[in-house]
Structures are given as structure tokens and as C-alpha cells.
Write a structure and sequence with these properties.
Blueprint lengths: L1 H11 L4 H14 L7 H4 L3 H31 L7 H17 L9 H6 L1
Helix pairs in contact: 4-5
Length: 115
């Protein structure tokens, strides 16, 4: 009777999330397939929309910075380097790289392609 009671108590004990993570890491290292709960890792439609809009805004800022730089540079017939426009262009490119690792030249192409 005591054995059954102890077993029932053990079955109801909460699981340790750290131990689960350790088991997952061990399985990865062993080369075993690991299943994930896809529902918990997917973004909600609203968050997907917000992420897309932020990406669009950063891309549009980059396009605007390129246009401003080209106007200033071509307006002087290539005689003057518009440093302020170049700095704005550099900043816009950096912001775009922060939003998506695929735009980062230092990123590994294999990891970027998987996303």
C-alpha cells in the first residue's frame, strides 16, 4: 500500500525544466532526433505582423538613405563626399542588419538560410 502511494506521489511531482533542457542537450549531442512543441515556439499572427512591419520600416529607411546619398553625391558631380548622408546610410544598414541576420555580412550563410 505504501509503495502505491509513493508511486502516485512521484507521478504527480512537477517536472524540473532544467533537467528537461539537460536531456534535450544530451540528445542533440548524441545525434538523436528531438521533437519540439511547435505551438509554443510559433509567433502569434499579431507578432508576425509587427515583425514584418518593423522590417519594412527599416528597409524603407535604408532605401531613403540610399536615395538621399545618391542625390547629394550626384548633385556635386562626384566632387564632394556627403559624409552626413554616408553616416545616415551606414546607420540604416546597421538597423536592417539587426532586424534580420540574413542581411549581416558576418553571419554564417548556412544559419541564415535555415531561418
Amino acid at each position: 500500500m505504501n509503495t502505491i502511494l509513493i508511486l502516485l506521489c512521484l507521478l504527480q511531482a512537477p517536472t524540473d525544466p532544467v533537467r528537461q533542457q539537460e536531456q534535450t542537450v544530451a540528445m542533440h549531442r548524441a545525434g538523436l532526433a528531438v521533437r519540439y512543441d511547435t505551438q509554443s515556439t510559433e509567433l502569434s499572427p499579431y507578432l508576425k505582423l509587427v515583425k514584418t512591419r518593423r522590417m519594412e520600416d527599416r528597409f524603407n529607411k535604408l532605401v531613403q538613405a540610399v536615395e538621399d546619398f545618391s542625390r547629394a553625391y550626384n548633385g556635386s558631380a562626384g566632387q564632394v563626399w556627403p559624409a552626413d548622408k554616408a553616416a545616415a546610410l551606414r546607420k540604416a544598414m546597421h538597423e536592417l542588419q539587426k532586424s534580420d541576420p540574413a542581411f549581416d555580412p558576418k553571419a554564417d550563410p548556412k544559419t541564415s538560410a535555415q531561418r
